[in-house]
Amino acid sequence: MLLSQLLIILAYFLNVTNSLSTSSHYARWAHVSALVGDKLYFMCGVVDTKNTIGSRDLFYLDLSKNFKDSLPIIEISSNLPVKSMWSAANAYGSTIFLCGGWLSYVSNGTLDNIDYVFTFSTQDNTWQRPSTYGTPPASHPLAAVSSVIDKTGKIYLFGGDNAAIAYSKMYIFDTINLTWLDSSDAGMAFNKTLYASVLLNNGEILYIGGIENYQIAKFADINIVELKRQLETQIQLETQIQQPEAQLQQPVPQLLPP
Ligand SMILES: *[C@@H]1O[C@H](CO)[C@@H](O)[C@H](O)[C@H]1NC(C)=O
Ligand SMILES: *[C@@H]1O[C@H](CO)[C@@H](O)[C@H](O)[C@H]1NC(C)=O
Ligand SMILES: *[C@@H]1O[C@H](CO)[C@@H](O)[C@H](O)[C@H]1NC(C)=O
């Protein structure tokens, strides 16, 4: 048998074993997810390719169950008062915080230009629109924003766009006392939207990929934002752009045999 034929059969086999049957009802994009215990929650998003309207759908994947025959998905009836797409979500304790996004009222379909945060309690399966304190973000909609949450329950929302301009601001939301911290100086030297972010254990946030300055950002250009807490109430943000290509060249000689 030719190698190519073998590869095709192998690819077919892998495909069959990797794709578990699920209802197409769950297919979507511009949605968010958050992990609480063994449950991976999926929220909102767009279910159509032609009609870009958000939804308030809510379901979770039970990670404690076997994935052998079908995906263990459990649907929850959602009382979220808005439909959402391109939001961000983080969990703290048993609560999920849905931040930013394109939001439209379920009741009449008009754009919700007021809200930035909704909370979902995984204890009683209900959404709430909490009163928040401090100065909320200035940009609306805060869509395609990505966020990370630290151990003390602070959510760092950076960038995003309103379909016309990409943002360069960092907004920090304290989930413990529902307060927007004063981050008026936290404008970054770069704008970014539709990217991935990850918080490292050393307090650095990596911003990877996405769209920068209307162009697809080079994947290797990783923006690093370092979070330094000087006082409990004061957060200083430092940014640097790392160029991993240049740094990767140094360790290579060490790998060569003597
Ligand atoms: C749409 O509904 C929301 C809340 O249900 C309300 O605040 C808003 O004023 C309504 N907008 C219009 C145009 O009816
Ligand atoms: C991003 O920021 C640069 C300046 O750093 C600015 O020239 C550009 O217009 C911004 N792009 C967008 C899409 O907002
Ligand atoms: C909320 O807590 C943060 C510290 O985590 C503090 O800086 C801020 O002042 C508090 N805000 C209010 C309104 O209590």
UniProtKB/TrEMBL annotation:
This protein's record includes keyword Ion transport: no
Residue spans crossing the bilayer: none
Superkingdom per UniProt: Eukaryota
SUPFAM superfamilies, A to Z: Kelch motif
InterPro entries in the record: Kelch-typ_b-propeller
Keyword Ubl conjugation: no
A biological process from GO: glucosinolate metabolic process
Alphabetical UniProt keywords: Iron, Repeat, Signal
Signal peptide location: 1-19
Official protein name in the record: 7927_t:CDS:1
Species for this entry: Acaulospora morrowiae
